[in-house]
Amino acid sequence: MKNRTIAVLAVAAWLGMTLPATAVAGHWGDFDRYAASNEQLKREKADDRVVFVGNSITDHWVRDRGEFFGAHPNYVGRGISGQTTYAFVTRFRRDVTDLEPAVVVINGGINDIAENSHPYNEDITFGNIRTMVEQAMMHGSKVILTTLLPAANIPWRAEIENTPDKIKSLNSRICRLAYLYDLPVVDYYSALIAEDGVSLKPEYTYDGLHPNVEGYKIMEALIVPQIELTLRDFKEDGTKSK
Hints:
Layout: H1 2-15, H2 35-43, E1 50-54, H3 56-64, H4 66-71, E2 75-79, H5 85-95, E3 103-106, H6 110-113, H7 122-138, E4 142-146, H8 163-180, E5 185-186, H9 188-192, H10 213-240
Parallel strand pairs: 1-2, 1-3, 3-4, 4-5
Helix pairs in contact: 5-7, 7-8
């Protein structure tokens, strides 16, 4: 185990990554987090499964709004707090495509801007998002892209500069990607932006970055109608292919 830990740290250093202390105990993509649930879902086939992949914003959604996911048993949360899109790509097969979802909802990038695992490079982060889109489509799933939520700064990384500009730039590229692949994009950003043009509306957050319950309700009102439309398209495409 000691040699394995040294090897993980060596690779992390070579990649320029900053790993949390817990990451060296297992895979830095946290493959174990949903392993048991994934195995169960793979045994339970569903033609309307919707997988939400993301970071703490998705992770806390399931935690804080369990009644929302309970009311939509076909919705599957696959968020892991603290993760960047680098980790999303690493676990995408296990946590997303292996579940054979009809629809995949992708939300990520804020932890890349926060430099949780790598120095921020917009091109690479955008490429990670595009890779997930292409993998999902290759496996027959429909994709819904979503914009990053607004944030004036990174609460745990005060030294990160120009956070609002970085969010706007990445959101613009996400919207262009949606146009390129003819995908829907749900704009959380515009619904949650404060009057100052940079912050998340204070009534919808508890720390300036993560939604509170009321913030999640706004997001739910936006995403559910789009999921219903996308599921309808998925089913129609399946009928046409028969």
